[in-house]
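Worked example 2:
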Amino acid sequence: MNLSDRITQLAEQHFEDLVATRRHLHSRPELSFEEYETTKFIAQKLKDTGYDLEKITETGGFIDIQGKNPESKTIALRGDIDALPILEQNDVEYKSKNEGKMHACGHDVHTTCLLGAVRILDELKGEFEGTVRCIFQPGEERLPGGASILIKNGVLVNPSVEKILGQHVMPLIDAGKVGFRSGLYMASADEIHIKVIGKGGHGAHPHQNIDPVVIAAQIITQLQTVVSRHSKPSVPSVVSIGKVIANGATNIIPNEVLMEGTFRTYDEEWRMRAHTLIEKICTDTAAMHGAKCEAEVRRGYPFLKNDEDLSNNARLWAEEYLGTENVEDLEIWPAGEDFAYYSQEIPACFYRLGIRNKERGITSMLHTPTFDIDEKALKVGSGLMAYLAIRELKSV
């Protein structure tokens, strides 16, 4: 029996436990950097397999699975463990028991698949040379991002991690399939915070006021020129204002307007220049009308670049494991992911795990209260992670 068939068989053998693990995690979600019970559960599952979770932050941690000649090479697999502040609306037996919290981004799946990969790799550790570091990462959903903290605390050293792979669920891909993209994949994600300060008063006498609502509207319009007139057409960029609070009334012009939004792109030099430009447009537009403006762009996650050699190899290995017909190409995805911090440090590959089942109505997108998965994806996710790790170590 070849390696692919052996791993497929092991994933099938563990499937019942994978489902139980995922449902346990899904029903007990915890928010970023609050994953204490989740960490205890992960630690116990690892202990059952013979490993002690090493913690370098309050929650989450990592283990090392050593094959033959463990010092020869170290690669890493990453799964995130936190949930979102969303009230779940699914009517399932494993519905969230923690009201207002939900695994609506599939991190319960990522954790389960990594735990499954640990069991498979442990059973096959005589089949490869080197070390696989399995990282259970907290706080992906909240700045500054758990990845940045783990990196600062040494998760990529002692021994030095040479490459890293991570997977993320994708509702646009059918369960049983996966997606890959080499090169630029996910955008940097920065927060825009704006306060326009004018002079409020009666809506019937606008000439006596400095109307921050009108000024805010002009700022929103002017900010679109950041992309349309200042960025290179070859560099994808997005400016979106998603929150506007003007607490007046039908006949009241308020004193101030608050706005929040996001800026996303794929070039670090342009990113920093755009921050300055955004703040200048806000303050200058307000000043032109006699108002003041406080504008701040808060730096978030960097852009995520998949290493071309690692990603191209991983795609080929995925075709070996799943069949060519079950591996898809991905388009650029301008959402943010703190896995990007790893990609800024070492060669990385971040790919997508299909979870959709249209016939069963499992089609909800990420970060929605009805998000769910076809659980057969757990077999694919755990088996493929193990297969990619072994193939990468064998490729030396």
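The two ends are 23 Å apart (CA to CA). Residues 268-288 form the longest helix (21 residues).
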